[in-house]
Specification:
The two termini are 32 Å apart. This protein has two domains: 107 residues, no CATH class; 123 residues, no CATH class. α3 runs antiparallel to α5, α4 packs across α7 and α7 packs antiparallel against α8. A four-stranded antiparallel sheet has the order 1-2-3-4, with helices on one face. The chain is built from ten helices and four strands. The radius of gyration is 19 Å and the shape is globular.
């Protein structure tokens, strides 16, 4: 009888890989001297208790982000993607451009929101192309894919957050168009509500896509994310980078299977 696979996710760092499971996380980094350092722990916040549709997605995002401060505490040398100066500059620059775009009268609201959504992807894309991040992103996908499906896993993975792009662009554009119809004094609040609603709706759509991978609509919605992975945000990793990803995966699985040795 084959072993039941634990559902895993992850995040690439500039010098390592984070792998997280339903209740635990593990992060492995490689220091400049070649040494691999690993830290792992139980999650303090687990989103599986949130059952309400539209809230489950934001809760899972909070769960993923909640481990980052602890990673920095346990692994001070870990280089998180958002620490890159170019990424921070890109975020600020994109915010200015998007603000100007939304104040423009030259485009229809739907076109404004769609372009704003596309522009908002620029900081993440820039972050993933800097340094070794794209290669560690590929290492993350290959290590998890090999665990799930066996040898031959590719650097693109079907559950990568990049697949949220298609649903998120559509739901964000629709939500912000509706928010623009609100009275001016309530418009900022309406946009905030629309963004939260778009995140919740897009994660529900993404969940449906992963359950129905052969559906024509699911494949169409997955196409932008797959192309982004294939052409921009992942690269073929080296054996050394794969070793780091496998160290993180192994440590996470040990905790998920009930071994607390790494939690000391």
């Amino acid at each position: 009888m084959s072993e039941e696979k634990i559902r895993l996710g992850g995040m690439a760092l500039a010098n390592g890989v984070l792998v997280h499971g339903p209740t635990s996380w593990a992060c492995a980094i490689r220091h400049s001297d070649g040494r691999i350092e690993v830290a792992s722990a139980r999650k303090r916040f687990v989103a599986s208790g949130v059952k309400m549709p539209l809230l489950r997605g934001p809760a899972r995002l909070v769960e993923s982000l909640a481990v980052l401060p602890e990673i920095k505490r346990r692994l001070p040398a870990a280089q998180l993607p958002m620490q890159d100066r170019r990424t921070l500059a890109s975020i600020l620059g994109t915010a200015v451009v998007v603000k100007g775009l939304r104040e423009s009268n030259r485009l229809r609201p739907a076109a404004q929101e769609l372009l704003s959504g596309l522009l908002s992807l620029a900081p993440a894309a820039l972050s993933l192309r800097s340094g070794e991040l794209a290669s560690y992103h590929g290492a993350e996908h290959i290590s998890i894919g090999t665990y799930e499906h066996g040898p031959g896993a590719q650097k693109e993975h079907e559950r990568c957050g990049g697949h949220l792009i298609g649903p998120l662009l559509l739901t964000t554009a629709a939500g912000n168009v509706l928010a623009s119809l609100a009275p001016e004094r309530m418009r900022n609040h309406a946009r905030s509500a629309a963004q939260l609603g778009a995140l919740g709706a897009s994660t529900e759509i993404f969940g449906w896509m992963t359950r129905h991978p052969k559906n024509v609509v699911a494949q169409a919605l997955s196409k932008p994310g797959h192309e982004l992975q294939h052409r921009l945000t992942t690269a073929d990793p080296t054996s050394a980078q794969l070793e780091v990803a496998e160290a993180a995966l192994s440590a996470c699985l040990e905790l998920e299977r009930g071994d607390d040795a790494h939690n000391a």
